[in-house]
Amino acid sequence: MNVHIVGTGLLGTSLGLGLSRHGYRVTLEDLSPTSAQLAADMGAGEVARPEDPDVVVIATPPDVVAQVIVDALRTWPNATITDVASVKTAILDAVKQHTRDRELDRYIGSHPMAGREKSGAIAARADLFMARPWVVCSDEDTPQERLEQVVTIAQAVGASVMHLDPLFHDSAVARVSHAPQVVASIMAAQLVDMPSEGVALAGQGLRDTTRIADSDPGLWTQILAGNAAEVATVLRDIRGDLDRVIDALDMRPGSLRTIAGSLAAGNDGRARIPGKHGLAPATYETVTVYVDDAPGTLSRLFTDIGDLGVNIEDIRIDHATGVKLGSVELSVVPAHVQVLIQGLRENGWRLPEQALDPKEEK
Amino acid sequence: MNVHIVGTGLLGTSLGLGLSRHGYRVTLEDLSPTSAQLAADMGAGEVARPEDPDVVVIATPPDVVAQVIVDALRTWPNATITDVASVKTAILDAVKQHTRDRELDRYIGSHPMAGREKSGAIAARADLFMARPWVVCSDEDTPQERLEQVVTIAQAVGASVMHLDPLFHDSAVARVSHAPQVVASIMAAQLVDMPSEGVALAGQGLRDTTRIADSDPGLWTQILAGNAAEVATVLRDIRGDLDRVIDALDMRPGSLRTIAGSLAAGNDGRARIPGKHGLAPATYETVTVYVDDAPGTLSRLFTDIGDLGVNIEDIRIDHATGVKLGSVELSVVPAHVQVLIQGLRENGWRLPEQALDPKEEK
């Protein structure tokens, strides 16, 4: 299969790298000849405009994707055209306005849920899509063989394909990704004018809730603008809940119930997020170890854990303020808790001196 | 120094365990005789009401702290009284209303910034306060020797003491802790009624931003109620920013600038959060490794890292949906990047096949 990639940024170049390594013949183009040549030098494919490619992948910035799709449908009358933008409805609508029905059958929108905080060809990775969801939007008119071409490409680079309706996709990503980005950015912005002594009280909770506020404003402005209505719907829901809590903080009769209800609803929402690998959330137990900041400490810790034969499911490092000591939380299956605790203590590691919590042994 | 602890929940019992291990004579009381005895059985001290303790620590639920402080000031006319509640102004005001000036000099509010998602004596740890900030609120009337008693206790259990004004404290924790808790809970609550296929698109960003929504609604309702005015101020600031973004999502002229400005302010706020150990954020480079979910994989990885002599500053595990493969991001000082990449490759680990990013080598 010959694949032509238009746009050699992070996603386009990563896709080129991945497909080239799996034997696909990949051609590349970009408005910036430098960027296209860089991608080619990295091994993402050959800079060329092919006569008759099987599939064309549009990986330009989101705000020009629709126009580039329309152009591609005309330029290559036999090719299947797909794109990798993170919004789907607005693009489909724009493409519909400028194409005839038969042409439209050759366009299949898709969205690999992958990215990095860095951008550009230079940040590309052949394995960027490995183990990530890749949403494909088809309908009853989509020719089966064209749909299979797009699915094959996604699977070739290791992604996990999900078939979704464009409206459903846009509404879902607004809720699980776009609105959380806005809220995290707004929450982080509240720190800008704080005295340093106040910011010094920040704990791991604030670090976690604002981590994605590090994202690129330019790219995210395009994403939010492209899914504006759906994002606004979720943000209005959030504002409604926020208004109720703000009102309740006047502490009138009934206030406590409103506040507690909001917090309990948060518990319920969290319980819906799938665990590792999309399975139902698994119950792991955590074992805490205190570590100092000396070179090699974490490496020694994990060497010892390796010797114990215990599989670590997840790791969290807690950063403390003002002291050169931290703690590491290790998630393990319940059956391994005792082996791990005893083994680490025997190796001289400092663990909390708590009595064993019966709930932690169930 | 004789220390009497009123309230043997997570904080009181943890403090008793820590102080007892450092040779303090600790007595305990709790409204629940079972809870007090459990704490004593765990080694937190002796269940007793002493005649003349040096320091009394009030560690009851936040909504009764003020009354218990007032009672304690009367019961023990020579003792220094402190508390560990996470709000300080409302408690100080309530205590002031019910005590004379001279009595008030014996009360010094404090707030160890430590906790767990679990609660009760059974979840206590002698090292809970290790390397955590412990805020102490004194004023010009506070007798120096009493202040030193509270500071000594905090330092005995390994905490890092910060002297702050109660109003400043409450305003700061509202911004870095209480309001983020409300916002994270509200954000997680938006998932309650979502179809499962939509929640399946959740990535690490959503997991991070909503992690603290797992917290206990009962305890947090008391905390928010006790700092209601300050929390409402921050939530109103957040609502103002949210309103601006919602309006901008109508996509009128000027909208893009508003949206981009919000995201950029988020970048600025994040940059203010101190790094590891309260230092200025350090620049580490990240090295990504792909790992499968087989038992022992992470342990083998860290054994290999240990053999390379590379110090790992931080670790992030990325969970993928639907595929039994994940990636681990290792933060290391720039000087160790090459050693780590080369050493891991030689040991057969799969790393992204990207060209080296010149920015990552600076």
UniProtKB/TrEMBL annotation, chains A, B:
Pfam families for the chain: PDH_C, PDH_N
E.C. code: 1.3.1.12
One record GO biological process: tyrosine biosynthetic process
Keywords: Amino-acid biosynthesis, Aromatic amino acid biosynthesis, NAD, Oxidoreductase, Tyrosine biosynthesis
Associated pathway: Amino-acid biosynthesis; L-tyrosine biosynthesis; (4-hydroxyphenyl)pyruvate from prephenate (NAD(+) route): step 1/1
NCBIfam families to which the protein is assigned, alphabetical: PRK06545.2-3 (NF005111), PRK06545.2-4 (NF005112)
Protein name: Prephenate dehydrogenase
Gene symbol of the encoding locus: tyrA
